[in-house]
Specification:
Elements lengths: L3 E8 L3 E3 L12 H11 L2 E7 H7 L1 H4 L1 H6 L1 H12 L1 E5 L11 E4 L4 H10 L3 E5 L1 H10 L4 E7 L7 E2 L9 E8 L5 E7 L2
Parallel strand pairs: 1-6, 1-7, 3-4, 3-6, 4-5
Antiparallel strand pairs: 2-8, 7-10, 9-10
């Protein structure tokens, strides 16, 4: 049975982007990108909101990224190797392989995918993650805290939900970023 993991880059004060929608502060160095590669490689399915999908689709649609370095090529391969479910009512079709567009998040469907999957599933994007957290289907939250404080912006976690968590992993990077993984207690 697979677990549903919410993984996101966040500022130290808990925002994924600033008030203008910028996230240029979260560009990973090579060490951090290798960590992301290791995290992505075993993922069997990604659940993505429209904005996260449009941001991440470049890993398949822009082949020049994979030519920049071995680390980036590895991430592009990991992206292409997983199935993707994109939740959107406005997209008319996918621009990447192994991708399907569905209009609504259904917790029962996610539970069925988890039960049938030998690999973990990844949820990307704070709005979709909030829906999954509210539905009680997220098993683990993985935050990479960047050494920056934004003061305001889009929060990484829902502001209207209490979560009881257990620290299961931590790692510090030379850049000053810190990875924290928490199991979601039920």
């Amino acid at each position: 049975m697979g677990r549903l993991v919410y993984a996101i880059n966040t500022s130290l004060d808990g925002f994924i982007e600033d008030v203008n929608g910028n996230f240029d502060w979260s560009v990973p160095d090579e060490e951090l990108h290798e960590f992301y590669n290791d995290m992505m490689r075993p993922i069997g399915m990604q659940l993505l909101g429209r904005r996260m999908y449009e941001t991440m689709a470049v890993w398949e649609t822009d082949t020049s990224l994979a030519q920049e370095s071995e680390v980036l090529a590895d991430f592009a391969d990991a992206w292409k190797d997983s199935d993707k479910v994109v939740y959107s009512t406005t997209l008319t079709g996918p621009v990447t392989t192994r991708t399907r567009i569905v209009p609504d998040f259904e917790a029962a469907e996610v539970r069925a995918w988890k039960a049938a999957s030998p690999a973990d599933l990844l949820v990307g994007g704070p709005e979709l993650a909030a829906a999954a957290l509210h539905a009680g289907v997220v098993d683990e939250i993985r935050l990479v805290l960047a050494p920056v404080s934004l003061g305001a912006g889009k929060p990484a976690l829902p502001t209207d939900l209490r979560l009881n968590l257990e620290l299961v992993e931590q790692r510090r990077f030379d850049s000053g970023a810190i990875h924290l993984a928490y199991g979601v207690r039920t």
